[in-house]
Design goal:
The complex is a heterodimer. Chain A is α/β, with parallel strands linked by helices. Helix content of chain A is 36%, strand content 25%. Chain A has a single domain (5-235), classed as Rossmann fold (3-Layer(aba) Sandwich), CATH 3.40.50.300. Chain A has helices spanning 43-50, 73-79, 98-109, 114-127, 143-155, 173-190, 201-204, 226-235, and strands at residues 5-14, 17-27, 32-37, 58-63, 66-67, 83-86, 161-165, 193-197, 210-215, 218-220. In chain A, the strands form 2 sheets. In chain A, strands 6-7-8-3-9-10 form a 6-stranded mixed β-sheet, with helices on both faces. In chain A, strands 2-1-4-5 form a 4-stranded antiparallel β-sheet, covered by helices on one side. The termini of chain A are far apart. In chain A, 40% of the residues are buried. Chain B contains 9 helices and no strands. In chain B, helix 1 packs across helix 8 and helix 6 packs across helix 8. Chain B is globular. The chains are: A alpha/beta, B mainly alpha. The A-B interface holds A 48, 51, 53, 77-81, 83, 85, 87, 89, 91-96, 100, 104-105, 107-110, 153 and B 41-44, 46-47, 54, 130-131, 134-136, 138-146.
C-alpha cells in the first residue's frame, strides 16, 4: 500500500542561513509530487528531510500517521525499507558491481533466495534499459547508466514511496524520457507515491498530480513563481 | 590580561569537553560494532565475509613485506646489540630473554600497530570519508542497512584478525633475523639459539603479545572508522586520515604503556 507523506512546519538552516522556513506539504497516497526551484534553494535538503536522512530543526515528518522523529534508530531503518531513494550523485557503492549494488536492498531484507534476487535484479535492469553491465563497477559506467543503475536499485524492492533527486538531469532527451516513462508506468500500475525534484518542471507538467516551487525557503504554487511562468511561456 | 587568561581557560575547557565527547562517541561506536561482530546481519553475510577478506588482504597480506623487513632488522639489531654489550656485563647467555622481552612483549605489537596505522588506518578513514561525501553511507541508511554493520564491523573484524596475525609474523621474522645474525657473526648454531629463545618464551608472553595485537587492532579500526564517519565535506577527507593516524597512535601508545606497567606491576 502506498504511503501518505505529510510534513509540517519544517525549518532548516545551513549554518546561519535559514534555508527552509516553515515548509508544510501533504502528498496523498499514489500521488506524484514535483518540487522545483533554483539551484541551492534547499530542494535536496527538503527531500532528505522527507526521507528521514536529516533531522529538521523544527517541524514534523509523518509517514502514514507516524511521526518518524519519534522512531528509534532501528525502527527508522526498518521503516526505510518501504521507500526508495535516488540521490543526485547516484551514491552507488564503489567497490560493489552494478549487480551487487542493485541486489543490496533485497539482500538486506534477508527473506529472498539468491535465485529470486537474481530474477528481480535482471527484471528491473531490463525495465530501466540497463544491459550487459551487471559485472561492471560504477567507475566504468556513463552518467546515464549510473543514473539508471541508481534508479534500478531504488525500484528493485518495489517501494511504496519513491524519493527522486533530479532523476533525469544531465541525460539525453531519449534516456530521460525513458526513465520518466518507467516511473509513470510504476506509478500507474501500482499507485506508488513519488516525490521528485526536477529543475525542468515543464517536462513533468502533463503528468504530476502536484507541482510546487521552493522559493525563499517556502513552497509556493508554480503559478506564483515568476521563473516557472517564464519557462512555461518559453516552451509555448 | 584578565581577558586573555579567561580565553585560555575557556579554550582549554572547550577542548577538554570536545575530547570527552569524542572519546564517548568512539566508545559508543566500538560497542555498537562489537555487538554487530557477534550478531552479524544474516542478510549481509555474503558481502560481510567478502568485506572482511578484503580488509585482511589490504591490512594483513599486503603489509607483510614492510612488516617483515622491519621485523628482520629489529631482530638483527637487538641480537647485535646484545652480543656486543652483554659480555661487558658478564652475561652472555641471556640474549634469548632479551629478544623475547624486546620483540615479543614490546616491539612486535607496537611496530606492527605503527605499520597498520600508517598504511591501513589512514586509508580506512579516507575510504569511509569518501563514502560519506559520495552519499554511499546515506544510501545504505535509506535502504534500511545499518552503516555500522556494513562498514565498521568488517573493518573491525578484519583489522583485528590481521593485527594478531601480523604480530605473530613480526615475532617469527624478528627471531629468524636474530638467529641469522647470531649464526653469521659469532657462529652460534641455529639449534642452540632457537633453544634459548624458546626457553625464554612463556605462555604469558604469547598471551600478552596477542592481547596487545587484538586491542591495538580494534582501536585502530574503530578510531579510523569514527574519523571517516565524521567527514561532512570533501575537504575534510585528508584531515580525517591525519586525525585517524594521530588518534590511533595516541591511544595505542597510551594502551601500550598501561599494558606494560600493568604487566610488571602484577
Amino acid at each position: 500500500m502506498p504511503v501518505k507523506l505529510e510534513i509540517d512546519g519544517i525549518f532548516w538552516s545551513a549554518g546561519v542561513f535559514p534555508l527552509l522556513r516553515g515548509i508544510s506539504l501533504t502528498v496523498e497516497r499514489g500521488e506524484i509530487m514535483v518540487i522545483g526551484g533554483r539551484s541551492g534553494c534547499g530542494k535536496s535538503i527538503l527531500l532528505e528531510i522527507c526521507a528521514g536522512l536529516k533531522r529538521p530543526e523544527r517541524g514534523r515528518i509523518v509517514w502514514d500517521d507516524i511521526d518518524i522523529a519519534t522512531m528509534s534508530r532501528n525502527e527508522l531503518l526498518t521503516a526505510r525499507q518501504r521507500i526508495g531513494y535516488v540521490f543526485q550523485q547516484y551514491a552507488l557503492i564503489a567497490n560493489y558491481s552494478i549487480f551487487e549494488n542493485i541486489a543490496l536492498p533485497l539482500r538486506s531484507r534477508g527473506d529472498l533466495a539468491e535465485k529470486e534476487i537474481d530474477v528481480r535484479v535482471h527484471t528491473v535492469m531490463e525495465e530501466v534499459a540497463l544491459f550487459n553491465v551487471e559485472k561492471h563497477f560504477p567507475e566504468s559506467l556513463s552518467n546515464g547508466q549510473l543514473r539508471a543503475a541508481a534508479l534500478a536499485r531504488a525500484l528493485v524492492t518495489d517501494p511504496e514511496m519513491l524519493f527522486l533527486d533530479e532523476p533525469v538531469s544531465g541525460l539525453d532527451p531519449q534516456t530521460a524520457s525513458g526513465i520518466r516513462a518507467v516511473l509513470h508506468a510504476r506509478q500507474r500500475r501500482r499507485e506508488r507515491t513519488i516525490v521528485t525534484i526536477c529543475h525542468d518542471l515543464y517536462l513533468w507538467a502533463s503528468r504530476p498530480h502536484r507541482v510546487a516551487v521552493l522559493e525563499g525557503g517556502k513552497l509556493v504554487e508554480p503559478e506564483e513563481n515568476h521563473a516557472f511562468r517564464q519557462m512555461v511561456e518559453a516552451r509555448r | 590580561m584578565k581577558y586573555a587568561t579567561m580565553r585560555i581557560i575557556s579554550g582549554a575547557g572547550e577542548r577538554t569537553l570536545a575530547t570527552i565527547t569524542e572519546v564517548r562517541s568512539i566508545a559508543a561506536l566500538f560497542l555498537h560494532a562489537l555487538h554487530g561482530c557477534f550478531r552479524p546481519s544474516r542478510a549481509l553475510s555474503a558481502s560481510f565475509f567478502a568485506q572482511i577478506s578484503r580488509q585482511i588482504l589490504y591490512t594483513g597480506v599486503e603489509a607483510m613485506g614492510l612488516v617483515g623487513i622491519i621485523a628482520f632488522f629489529c631482530g638483527v639489531t637487538i641480537v647485535l646489540q646484545s652480543m656486543t654489550t652483554m659480555p661487558q656485563f658478564g652475561v652472555t647467555e641471556y640474549f634469548g630473554n632479551i629478544l623475547v622481552v624486546a620483540v615479543v612483549r614490546e616491539m612486535g605489537p607496537f611496530f606492527t600497530s605503527l605499520v597498520v596505522i600508517g598504511r591501513s588506518g589512514a586509508a580506512l578513514a579516507a575510504h569511509i570519508g569518501t563514502m560519506r561525501v559520495n552519499k554511499e553511507i546515506d544510501a545504505l541508511e535509506v535502504m534500511g542497512i545499518d552503516p555500522v554493520h556494513f562498514v565498521v564491523v568488517p573493518a573491525l573484524a578484519g583489522m583485528t584478525l590481521s593485527m594478531i596475525c601480523l604480530n605473530c609474523y613480526f615475532d617469527m621474522i624478528a627471531i629468524v633475523g636474530g638467529l641469522v645474525i647470531a649464526n653469521v657473526t659469532v657462529q652460534v648454531p641455529f639449534g642452540i639459539f632457537l633453544g634459548k629463545v624458546l626457553d625464554a618464551l612463556s605462555w604469558i608472553d604469547i598471551v600478552l603479545s596477542s592481547s596487545k595485537g587484538l586491542v591495538f587492532g580494534a582501536v585502530i579500526a574503530v578510531v579510523s572508522c569514527w574519523y571517516g564517519m565524521a567527514v561532512n565535506n570533501i575537504r575534510a577527507v585528508p584531515q580525517a586520515a591525519i586525525r585517524a593516524v594521530v588518534g590511533s597512535m595516541t591511544v595505542t601508545i597510551i594502551l601500550n604503556i598501561v599494558a606494560t606497567v600493568g604487566f610488571y606491576a602484577r
